[in-house]
From TrEMBL:
It comes from the Bacteria. The keyword Lipid biosynthesis does not apply. Pfam families: TetR_C_13, TetR_N. This is TetR family transcriptional regulator. Residues 6-66 form the HTH tetR-type domain. Residues 29-48 bind DNA. It comes from Dictyobacter formicarum. InterPro entries: Homeodomain-like_sf, HTH-type_TetR-like_transc_reg, HTH_TetR, Tet_transcr_reg_TetR-rel_C_sf, TetR_C. Keywords: DNA-binding, Transcription, Transcription regulation.
Amino acid sequence: MTAAPSSARQRILDVATDLFYREGIRAIGVDTIVEQSGVGKATLYRHFPTKEDLITAYLDEKEHDYWQQYDEVLVQHEGSPREQLLAFVDTVVARLLQPDYRGCTFLNALAEFSDKEHSVHRHAVEHKLALKKRLLQLSQQAGASDPEMLADQLMLLINGALASVSTFGATGPTSQLKPLATQLIDQQIQP
């Protein structure tokens, strides 16, 4: 009997995740989510008392998936922080090449929620800060001559690629992510 509520919750979250990502968080109302998930409005509100709670669950799920992929890449190149940095860039490039790619979930959230005090904005900023921290740790472990600078440069490149692919496509400026990241890494870390 307890499987039905979690199943309904997951169905709501799956539908919201798809719609929020494809069409934008603010563009999608709870009525659309209710209709497409096949649950009643009362069921949606039982699991997510407010739309903001649903948005938070969406961001939490996307973040979990992101860090899981990040960690899988690190494990594959354990013991070589330089290779971990390069492999992470490869995963970003692979994400950008997906046909359904519509931008970075967290950059999109920042664009939609510009109020720095809004919980969605703060959540997205925290994700980006966590990524910078992880890149800094890898840069330090790899023996970068200036780990802070390398982490900043990689963040700039990655976020620039994530933001520009929707405008220029994967063959435009975004295609320079891997060669530029490799060049920056090679300048600071001896292979």
